[in-house]
Amino acid sequence: MSQSVLPPAGPNGLTEDVEIQGHIVDSLLLPKVLDEILTHGGNYVIKDIRIGKRQADPSYARIEVRAPNQAILDEVLDSIHDHGAVPVTVQDCQVVDADMEGAFPEGFYSTTNFRTQVRLGGEWIEVEDQEMDCGILIDPEGGAARCIPMTDVKRGDRIVVGRQGLRVFPSDTSARQNLFEFMASPVSSEKPKGVTVREIAQAMRRTREAGDKLLAVLGPAVVHTGSVEHICALIRHGYLSVLFAGNALATHDIEQSLYGTSLGISLDRGLPAEEGHEHHLRAINTIRRAGGIRAAVDRGLLRSGIMYECIRHNVPFVLAGSIRDDGPLPEVITDTLVAQRRMRELIHGVGFALMIATALHAIATGNLLPAWVKVACVDINPATVTKLTDRGSVQTVGVVTDAEPFLRALVHELTQPKSV
Predict the structure, then answer these.
(1) 116: helix, strand or coil
(2) Has residue 420 been placed in a domain?
(3) Percentage of the chain surpassing pLDDT 70?
(4) Which of 16, 264, 288, 317 is the most core-located residue (most Cβ within 10 A)?
(5) pLDDT digit string, tens, across residues 239-272
(6) Which long-range contacts (CB under 8 A, 24 or more apart) does 411-414 make?
(7) Distance (Å, whole) CA 307 – CA 334
């Protein structure tokens, strides 16, 4: 089967055959590739196409890409590469030694969060630690590859340049499980919340049963809205394995435990407490004088709350600091690069991420996650979820609602006895 678009390349035109396979029709990858070719000034001939007969069957297309000159051809090939289109003529990837600390060599390959392979010694090798906006480091023996952030590059590191010998496997939207099947769009305030909560609960159960970790990324509104006990219940029932947050979440959680307030507002009465504006600073001071959160728990000073349950149930956490922080608490990591490295360490083995009421921490975490880790983002502001997906975390399902009713329903769904 052959189909052409636009006039064929002239006598001075250039061509290159590429192929794309998988669920390329129902996931719209094939039309995306064709659109990219035309948008960037090329044209094409579909030289072979085979459509899978059943839903689970992959499809295949071989496309001759045409361009009037090498610059446009390179631009076209670059644009379709991240959609999974790779040259038919395969060569090993190109590697260049880094010539300085903390920077990639010119022409480095910039990674996506999609599964990626590099060709080394005639064999396709999986890229480990998949993450967007990184480079690819080849080990000295040439038998392994992994993503590496720019700041971690050392002089002499073997870094992949160009796109030769690379192939990307974009997310297969047709293969999404129940969590995403009912979502016509990634974020909406009109979706039925009960259905959404049930699907997220099922995804969390599957993740725990598979032995993968459940990551929670939380903002201080979790405390302000009276949701602390819901998060504590998730920890106690084994539905929270790792916590990412900032100084504010931990501070106001501890403030509630010590004073019953959050930002000086009584969580029982909803009214400002006398001298309540000082409570968050006094809470920080108490923890600093104790030597840290764990020391405060061990000494019996901190007896409830999210941070208390994390210590009690050995849930690792990263508290990443910001310029706005008071104190901060001793466990807060004020060096952002150190915080990123610690987050990367704890992301290994995460199978599901629940992000609630935090824009910056959600986006930061989304940038570190590979595309196959499903994400549920809950926020009263739809822009938070939109920003997350716009930055490349396309695996995100958004729930536009307040934190407390969502978490109350989620805990109920996860902890109620299953009907027989």
Answers:
(1) strand
(2) no
(3) 91
(4) 317
(5) 999 999 999 999 999 999 999 888 777 777 776 7
(6) 411/230, 411/233, 411/234, 411/237, 413/197, 413/198, 413/201, 414/201, 414/204, 414/205, 414/234, 414/237, 414/239
(7) 18
3-class state of residue 219 by DSSP: coil
Judge if 130 and 185 occupy the same domain. Answer: no
73: domain CATH number? Answer: 3.30.70.2690
pLDDT in tens, 22-78: 888 878 889 999 999 999 999 999 999 998 888 778 889 999 999 999 899 989 998
Judged against a pLDDT cut of 60, whether residue 186 lies above it is answered with no
Residues of the domain holding 393:
176-415
Do 409 and 268 sit in the same domain of this protein? yes
Q: Cα separation of 402 and 245, whole Å?
A: 18
Q: How far apart are CA 130 and CA 116, in angstroms?
A: 8
Pair (98, 119) in one structural domain = yes
Residue bearing tokens 């991420």: 353
136 and 62 both lie in a single domain:
no
Give start and end residues of each alpha helix (H) in 291-352.
293-298, 306-312, 336-347
Distance CA 202, CA 330 (A): 36
The total number of structural domains that make up the chain: 3
Q: Model pTM?
A: 0.83
Neighbours of 126 (CB within 10 A): 12
Mean pLDDT of the 357-365 span: 94
In this structure, of 28-32, 111-115, 237-241, 346-350, the range with the lowest mean pLDDT score is: 28-32
